[in-house]
Design goal:
The protein is α/β, with parallel strands linked by helices. About 30% of the residues lie in helices and about 25% in strands.
């Protein structure tokens, strides 16, 4: 069993958080080793953000052709999807990005890469890392500090009959070579919503079975807006649905039995997609052996500096149970390195964290919702402006949606912005700067904003605190 000492930093995983950490540690002059048992790049580039958004963009192009009638004088049509070609194009994009943004960087920065499964050995005071290769060989690594960045994987609930039905997850759905004629989706979070619209726009008849509401953690106006969008596009949504059992039926297809406020019913479709959330990947790491505590869902328990209960071991990204965004993981990676090697004592701060669901229109938000603000003790005041009052939305002939602003009623400081709109992610990005700067409603209401941009809606929403925006002229100051 070879023993390779001398690493400053050992990173388990190769996703966004792992790479950000390895790059930062290399900049600090540290000797870095990265351990990966699967495909380089982690979830985002291989099975998450990149492939799903690539397919969503393609589905959006088809939908734009079918929906062109909203523009007078424009008549287009769209035929069936060539799914093998679409999937091949998506795969080519993924491979290109994985090579350019991940694999090639390992050589550029010069850190070591080990392929195999990692497990901690040693003890709490002297942890080591054992790497088991595909051929069964075992290598032991020593490092001053270790980072757990193993991400998360789709979680499947324990439902009678489910595991015998050949269900899809957000990962396997990205590899389909044909568009299902009909699709049942379990879940109401961001993955379920994006996948529902994706397959509907590719030609599937989609039904969503949602335990509570769509995007239930966000503003209730957002759920209602997306319900309207989905209804317009023929996506059926069953809210308050508790799934009791799943089975296959003769000739192919699935039957889901569920209880909802309307009573017990059966729902059938060609395929079933389970999008009920994700869970941290920590199994097999032997965390107990080296004194690293985990939570009820298997997440590595960390403090706000991303330190675990072992002072030499850190965690970043989804595996920590923190918000599941690749930009959170990347921020975690560099923060953990600074704290481990420079004593920076940097702390995670989510007060202006943006979040985007890439439906069309997007659901995007930054900061607190109305409910969260009140629960945190803020006496808040809110305004909601329909997109019917946003010139960009009128020009696009897409007014399904709104912009909502939450402000501290005593100081006028803006503490949250939510939007359902085309390119709402850009609104959330602008909102980050507004919240970070501590801007007030009055300041935003009187700042410059280019006409015929969706971001102009932020200014209009701020103006709505003191005036009736329906009575403003275009470009009103």
């Amino acid at each position: 069993m070879p023993d390779v000492p001398g690493f400053d930093f050992a990173v388990i995983g190769s996703g966004g958080g792992a790479f950000a950490a390895a790059i930062r540690a290399t900049h600090l002059g540290k000797r870095v080793v990265m351990v990966e048992r699967g495909m380089i790049g982690g979830t985002c580039v291989n099975t998450g953000c990149v492939p799903s958004k690539a397919l969503l963009a393609a589905a959006g192009a088809r939908h734009a052709a079918l929906d062109s009638g909203r523009f007078p004088g424009v008549v287009t049509d769209a035929g069936p999807i060539d799914m093998p070609s679409l999937t091949a194009g998506k795969s080519a994009l993924v491979e290109s990005l994985r090579s350019e943004k991940y694999e090639d960087l390992i050589s550029s920065y010069g850190w070591d890469l080990r392929r195999g499964s990692a497990a901690f050995a040693g003890d709490e005071t002297d942890p080591t890392l054992q790497i088991t290769g595909s051929d069964g060989t075992v290598e032991t690594l020593h490092a001053r500090h270790y980072l757990i960045a193993t991400g998360s994987s789709p979680w499947v609930p324990d439902i009678e009959g489910l595991r015998e039905t050949g269900y899809l997850t957000s990962t396997t759905a990205m590899e389909l070579d044909s568009v299902p004629e009909s699709l049942l989706i379990l879940g109401g979070g961001y993955v379920a919503l994006e996948q529902a619209q994706l397959f509907s726009r590719l030609g599937s008849k989609v039904t969503l079975l949602v335990r509570s509401e769509l995007a239930s953690a966000e503003e209730p106006e957002a759920s209602r807006a997306l319900l309207g969008v989905f209804a317009d596009e023929g996506i059926r949504v069953i809210r308050g649905a508790v799934v009791e059992s799943v089975s296959s039926f003769a000739g192919g297809g699935v039957v889901v039995r569920a209880m909802s406020p309307a009573g017990r019913d059966e729902y059938t479709a060609e395929r079933l997609l389970v999008a009920t959330g994700r869970r941290p990947v920590t199994q097999g790491l032997n965390l107990d052996r080296i004194g690293v505590r985990t939570g009820s869902m298997g997440e590595v328990v960390v403090d706000d500096m991303l330190a675990t209960s072992n002072p030499r071991i850190w965690a970043a990204g989804d595996v920590s149970g923190h918000p599941e965004f690749v930009y959170v993981a990347a921020s975690h990676g560099s923060l953990a390195v600074d704290n481990a090697f420079t004593g920076a004592q940097r702390r995670v701060d989510y007060r202006s964290l943006p979040r985007v669901i890439f439906t069309s229109p997007n659901l995007a938000a930054v900061g607190l919702t109305d409910k969260q603000a009140r629960e945190s003790g803020i006496d808040c005041e809110c305004r909601v402006v329909s997109l019917e009052h946003v010139p960009r939305a009128l020009v696009n002939r897409e007014t399904r949606g709104f912009i909502k602003m939450v402000a501290d009623s005593e100081t006028g400081r803006i503490v949250g912005i939510t939007a359902v709109a085309q390119n709402a992610g850009e609104i959330a990005a602008a909102g980050v700067y507004i919240l970070e700067a501590g801007m007030t409603v009055d300041q935003v209401a009187n700042m410059w904003s280019p006409y015929l941009t969706m971001a102009e809606g932020i200014k209009l929403t701020a103006q709505s605190f003191t005036r009736d925006v329906s009575q403003l002229s275009c470009c009103a100051a």
